Amino acid sequence: MPCVFAPARSRARVRARLLSLAAVGACVGALWGCGASGVSPLGEGTTTVAPFTELRHGGLEVRWWVVDDGWGALGPALASASSRPVPWADGVREAWSRSGLRVVAVPVEALDALQASLPMAGPARSIWHGALPEWTEIAGGPRLSSGVTVRLSDGLFRVPQGRFRLLARSWASPASSPEGSAGLRVELTPQLAAPSMASDETSHLALWSRRLEDEPRGPGWSEGIAFGGLRSSFRSERAMAYLLVPESPEVDWSSLPAPTPPPSVLAQQEALRALRSAVGPEGDPDGGDARGGEDVWAGEDEAPVLGVFGPELVGPPTLGEAMLRSLGPGGRAGAGRLKVVVVLVPHPPESFDLLGRGR
Questions:
Q1: How far apart, in whole angstroms, are the C-alpha atoms of residue 68 and residue 117?
Q2: Total count of domains within the chain
Q3: Are the C-beta atoms of residues 330 and 48 closer than 8 Å to each other?
Q4: Residue 166 lies in a domain
Q5: Which residues contact residue 208 at a Cβ distance below 8 angstroms, ignoring those fewer than 6 apart?
Q6: Is-contact 249 98, C-beta < 8 A?
Q7: Are 166 and 231 in contact (CB under 8 A)?
Q8: CB contact at 8 A, 191 and 174
C-alpha cells in the first residue's frame, strides 16, 4: 500500500490538534491547583511507592481523589461507611464535621472498589510520606483573597489572606495491650498558611488562632494560624483508611437520592440528532424565526436567572469546602462540583521497640 503524505496545511492542523490535546491532559493533571509558590501541592512525583524496608518501619501514605460530584454520587457512596466508628474523640470529629470536613473510615481492601464507583475527574494520586516527626503539609487549597468568610465549628471566620492547608505528623506507637500489635499515631490539624497580619485584624485573629507549639522547630509550618478544637490525635487501626471529605454539615448523606448517572456519549448524540431534525432552518420547529414567536420573553418581571444551577447556597462555605476544592488551569476554580477527597492510609510498623522506632 503506497504511503500517503498529508499536505503541509493538514500537518499543521494535526500538530495544532496534538498540542491542544496535550494542553487538555496538562489541565487534567493540574486539577489540584497550585500553591502559593506556584508549584502543585502534589509535587512532580505525585505517585510514589513505599520501599519495602520503609514499609516495615511503618509510615503514612496519602492519596488524593478528585471527584466530580455534580451527579451526587459521593454522598450516597459513603453513606453506609459514615456510621463506622473512627478512633477520634467524639468532640473533635464533630467539630471537624461542623467545619465541613467529614471523617470516614474505610477498610484498605475496599478502597479500590470505592474509587471505581466514583466519577473521578482524573487519575488518583498518592505519595508515601513514611514517618513524619514534624508537622508536614499533606494537602493544600487555593489562595483566598482578603475578606472571604468561611464557617468553622464555632462560628464565622474572616480570612485575612492566605490559603488553607492540612498538616500532619505521625510516628510509631507501642501496642495498647500485651496481645496487641504496634500502631501508628497520627495527628492532624487544618491551618491558614501565611496570612496577612494587618494591624486592624490582629484582635480578630487572636480569637481564633493559637501556635502549634510553644517553641516552633521549623519555619515552614509555624507560619500560620491553627484553629482551636480542630487538632486531632488518634492511634490508627491496622488495615483501615480514613477519608477526609469536604461536605456541608447541613447535608444528610443517608437521605440523599440515588445518584443520577450522566448520559452516555451515544445517548447524547442521539438526543442532538433528534433536536436537529425537529428544529427548522431558522431555529423554529415550524421553520420560522424563533425570535419572532410568542414564546420569547419580553417582560422585566419574569427575568430568568442565568448561570445558577443546583440547590440554593446555605451561607458561606465551610473551611473544608474552601480548602478541598479542585482548581483548574491558572488557579481558577474548576468547573462543576469538583471535590478533593484526602485518603489517609496509615501503615503501622511490624513491631515496636523501646527506642520508639517501629521495626
A1: 12
A2: 1
A3: no
A4: yes
A5: 152, 157, 225, 227, 228
A6: yes
A7: no
A8: no
Specify which residues 152 forms β-bridges with.
Answer: 155
Measuring CA to CA, which residue among 341, 343, 317, 322 is closest to residue 333?
322
- Between CA 229 and CA 27, with CA 74 as vertex, the angle to 5 degrees is 95
**Nearest 10 degrees: Cα torsion 220, 224, 229, 235:** -10
Which pLDDT tens digit goes with each residue over 300-357?
A: 334 434 444 444 455 789 999 999 987 544 444 434 478 999 999 999 887 666 554 4
Cell of 156: 464565622
| Helix/strand number for the chain, H first, E second | 9, 13
Query: 3-state class of 316 per DSSP?
Result: coil
Measured CA to CA, the distance from residue 109 to residue 240 in angstroms comes to: 8
Q: Is residue 295 part of a domain?
A: no
Q: What is the SS3 assignment for 157?
A: strand
pTM: 0.66
List, for residues 249-286, the tens digit of each pLDDT value: 999 998 888 777 666 667 767 777 777 776 555 544 44
Take residue 345 and report the three cell numbers written for it: 492510609
In the predicted model, is pLDDT for residue 131 greater than 50?
A: yes
CB 189, CB 232: distance < 8 Å: yes
pLDDT exceeds 50 at position 35: no
- What nine digits make up the cell of 169? 505528623
**What is the dihedral sign for C-alpha 192, 195, 201, 206?**
positive
Q: How far from chain centre, in Å, is Cα 164? A: 12
Closest CA to 151 of 323, 269, 329: 323
Q: For residue 121, give the DSSP letter.
A: S
- Where in the sequence is the domain holding 84, given as residue range(s)? 46-259+324-347
Q: Which position has the higher pLDDT, 106 or 161?
A: 106
In a domain, 16, yes or no: no
> In sequence order, what are the beta bridge partners of 289?
283
25 vs 30: CA distance, rounded Å:
9
Say if 151 falls within a structural domain: yes
Partnered with residue 130 across adjacent β-strands are: 60
